[in-house]
Q: What sequence folds into this?
């Protein structure tokens, strides 16, 4: 059987070290061929990201450099893209016929999955893998990926950057350099 392709979606506003750590954990736990990073554009179901797509994409490219098993998929950033995971998964199945797809998500998102667009169909299109946090209850419909929570969040990074605080331990150096050079999150 072909090794799975793990899919990690998000705004990545900005991409940070916890994102990279969960991607590496997924590669190992799932024995995945690769992690496909799927940055979202401006989805209709949530507020728009702070940084424009071009900057978030550039930061992702910097963060993923040198990681041969990380790949970037820009389909949700294309003009007219729906931003719905379901639509992306349908397209990915066509791009990777016969390859198992595994959608990665945090326990918080998994708990809210019933609110997602066409959630029941998503569960039929791919497997689900959840980064289990303490207190997460096992699920019959999702694989658990053990992962120690990391105290890093994009919203905290943006707030710290706005206050000119040090975030160097939270981000890849190249991403921090990009944020500084383009004066993002000020």
A:
């Amino acid at each position: 059987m072909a090794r799975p392709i793990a899919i990690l979606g998000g705004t990545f506003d900005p991409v940070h070290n916890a994102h990279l750590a969960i991607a590496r954990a997924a590669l190992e736990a799932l024995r995945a061929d690769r992690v496909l990073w799927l940055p979202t554009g401006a989805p209709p179901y949530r507020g728009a990201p702070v940084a424009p797509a071009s900057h978030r994409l550039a930061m992702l490219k910097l963060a993923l450099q040198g990681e041969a098993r990380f790949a970037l998929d820009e389909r949700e950033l294309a003009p007219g893209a729906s931003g719905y995971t379901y639509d992306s998964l349908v397209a990915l199945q066509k791009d990777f016929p016969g390859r198992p797809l595994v959608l990665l998500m945090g326990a918080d998102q998994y708990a809210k999955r019933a609110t997602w667009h066409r959630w029941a169909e998503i569960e039929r299109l791919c497997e689900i893998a959840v980064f289990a946090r303490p207190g997460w209850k096992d699920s019959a419909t999702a694989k658990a990926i053990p992962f120690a929570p990391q105290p890093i969040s994009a919203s905290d990074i943006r707030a710290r950057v706005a206050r000119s605080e040090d975030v160097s331990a939270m981000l890849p150096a190249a991403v921090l350099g990009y944020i500084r050079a383009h004066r993002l999150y000020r």
